[in-house]
Amino acid sequence: GAVVSQHPSRVICKSGTSVKIECRSLDFQATTMFWYRQFPKQSLMLMATSNEGSKATYEQGVEKDKFLINHASLTLSTLTVTSAHPEDSSFYICSARGAATYEQYFGPGTRLTVT
Amino acid sequence: AQSVTQLGSHVSVSEGALVLLRCNYSSSVPPYLFWYVQYPNQGLQLLLKYTTGATLVKGINGFEAEFKKSETSFHLTKPSAHMSDAAEYFCAVSDRTSGTYKYIFGTGTRLKVLA
Q1: A1-26 pLDDT per residue, tens
Q2: Distance between CA atoms of B88 and B43, rounded to whole angstroms?
Q3: CB interface of A with B, residues 95-114, below 8 Å
């Protein structure tokens, strides 16, 4: 149980375009979802926390207008990178947590390359 | 504020030797602690976790960790390294004071196993 999926696993987009990444909890209701960013050979940095039906809470230094997060249902959150630039190229990982648990379950990640 | 320190960004051991990856944390309240492994271009896989109870925790693939409150440590060990253990390892603490139980990750330790 507690499976989280991400789609797509890899995406290449041109500079200036927007790209959407989906995160789904497949077998539980995720009241809270988290989005992380991981640069090569570095740790995971939390970008934002989203609760179902509420606006996301962004970490300091993360541009909320650039990284749009939607958590419209208990099984789906989306991250949209708007007007992407090469420096946005990274590995994006989502995680999800149910209401009655502290533990996060991680998705497999999405490799974004902006050309 | 909570923080996690992983001493040694790179650790090399010989196949069959003891693996010891260090993790220290700072927290004003007893934290939940986790160890994850990450293989290249993949998401995180939970090795083990500590919440309450027995301080020696056993995980998957022969790994274990001991929570030592007096030393604020949660070091990861494995008696005998396998080649397949070569990966990146992350220690994380769950922020129980935030309400969202967001994770704070250490900077990671890359384990290399020598034949």
Answers
A1: 689 999 999 999 999 999 999 999 99
A2: 11
A3: 95, 97, 102-104, 106-109, 111
